Amino acid sequence: MDGNGRWARKRLMPRYLGHRAGLEAVRKTVEQCIEYGVEVLTLFAFSSENWRRPKKEVGMLMDLFMSALNKEVRRLDRNGVRLRIIGAREAFPQALQDKIAEAERKTAGNDKLVLQIAANYGGRWDVTQAARILARRVARGEMDPEAIDEAMIASELAFPDLPDPDLFIRTGGEQRLSNFVLWQAAYAELYFTDLLWPDFDAQAFADALISFAGRERRFGRTSEQVQGEDGA
Ligand code: IPE
Ligand code: MG
């Protein structure tokens, strides 16, 4: 979700109003997902690197996160949304950690949409923490290092129970992954748009889905193989 700051600047407003407008775009996108039958939505809200921003902006983002949890969880729950936060949550203030745990508990039984908020998340962090878990097991003599395969690493990543993402959308004109779900997005279809995140509306979402629908997903095979499978 990139471009909140620029959206605000263009309107001669402080950056935090851009983040507030971004929250509105989140609300709409969640509704769109439910409407289209998208099963998992993962939003990159705050990266491991975003701590480098000015202290005031970091504090403001924490406040917004907290107030969004306070205000939105009831509605999410009503709409059948299961909320999960992925990332190194221990870095957040205790009150925020408690709120997160409560929101996850409250919505754990919902199955319309899994909404994952990546907060203090980084793709490298994710792989690193998985490696650490496996290394501990080896060190304790519970496992042979030769037994480590891709599936085992994947099983220790942030969301091992969910499928790999199919579509990766980045707004704000930048064409890079910026350390998001690096492992899991190995075969994700990438979609970049110049729209700033607060301007990402129903039409923009539909455009991304249309683009996705036109992609041929080969997963290493040939086009003929894939087409034969469909047509046979
Ligand atoms: C994305 O918008 C929101 C967060 C990273 C929290 P930005 O804050 O990166 O907006 P720009 O890139 O400055 O416009
Ligand atoms: Mg940005």
Structure report:
The structure is a single chain. Helix 3 (55-78) runs parallel beside helix 4. The chain is globular. Helix content is 47%, strand content 13%. The chain has one domain (4-212): Undecaprenyl pyrophosphate synthetase (3-Layer(aba) Sandwich). It has a 3-stranded parallel β-sheet with strand order 1-3-2, with helices on both faces. Strand 2, helix 4 (94-107) and strand 3 form a beta-alpha-beta unit. The longest helix has 24 residues, at 55-78. It is α/β, with parallel strands linked by helices and 232 residues long. The model has no long low-confidence stretch (mean pLDDT 97). 3-methylbut-3-enyl trihydrogen diphosphate (IPE) is lined by residues 1-6, 46, 50, 61, 172.
Give descriptors for this structure.
binds magnesium ion, Undecaprenyl pyrophosphate synthetase, three-stranded parallel β-sheet, single chain, 8 helices, 232 residues, globular, alpha/beta, binds 3-methylbut-3-enyl trihydrogen diphosphate, two-stranded parallel ribbon
Short description:
The protein is α/β, with parallel strands linked by helices and 232 residues long. The chain has eight helices and five strands, in the order H-H-E-H-E-H-E-H-H-E-E-H-H.
Outline the secondary-structure elements:
Elements: H1 4-10, H2 15-36, E1 40-47, H3 55-78, E2 81-86, H4 94-107, E3 113-121, H5 123-139, H6 150-154, E4 167-170, E5 189-192, H7 202-213, H8 223-231
Parallel strand pairs: 1-3, 2-3, 4-5
Helix pairs in contact: 1-2, 2-3, 3-4
The structure holds 3-methylbut-3-enyl trihydrogen diphosphate (IPE) and magnesium ion.
